[in-house]
Amino acid sequence: MTRLKNLTEKQVKDLAFDLADELKKQDVVIGLAGNLGAGKTTFAKSFAQALGIKRVKSPTFIVVAEYAIKNLQFYHIDFYRLNHLDQLQALGLSDTLASKNRIVLIEWVDKFPKIQKQCDLVIKFKIRPNNKRDLEIINAK
After folding, report:
1. Which residues of 81-97 are buried (b: 16+ CB within 10 A; e: fewer)?
2. What is 2-139's CATH topology?
3. Closest C-alpha among 17, 13, 14, 47 to residue 30
4. Which residues pair with 64 in a beta bridge?
5. Would you say residue 140 has pLDDT above 90?
6. pTM of the shown model
7. Which residues are within 8 A (CB) of 120 and not within 5 positions of it... i.e. 6 or more apart?
8. How many CB atoms sit inside 10 A of residue 19's CB?
9. Which of 6, 18, 28, 103 is most deeply buried (CB count within 10 A of its CB)?
10. pLDDT, tens digit, for every residue of 60-103?
11. What angle do CA 141, 114, 34 make, to 5 degrees?
């Protein structure tokens, strides 16, 4: 587990870029957790941009945004509007998690502990004063 304290928005974005560069050739599931406005979407968009995605759509209303990148698929998933495990079946989430050559990034993963347990990495965001963030990075597997 790694704890990072009092990060600026730029530092959160830089972390996302560094992590994307490190993980871009791996099959990985990343869960993001934290309150509304904690920086999950900022992190997710920076992560996607680091993978080469030019235009990143927020999946809050569509729930899943899928992007083809060279030899892998990137799935940006947002559980914000979901409340029941049965809603995940309609998304084909089990197939996505079981597939190969993919990176899956899930915002609000803490809403579904069963899915959070399937993450390789969980990043917890906490809002601090002066527009700063604390991040806790947990290697879940």
Report:
1. ebeeeeebeeeebeebb
2. Rossmann fold (3.40.50)
3. 47
4. 77
5. no
6. 0.93
7. 28, 29, 30, 139, 140, 141
8. 20
9. 103
10. 667 888 999 888 999 999 999 999 888 888 888 889 999 999 99
11. 80
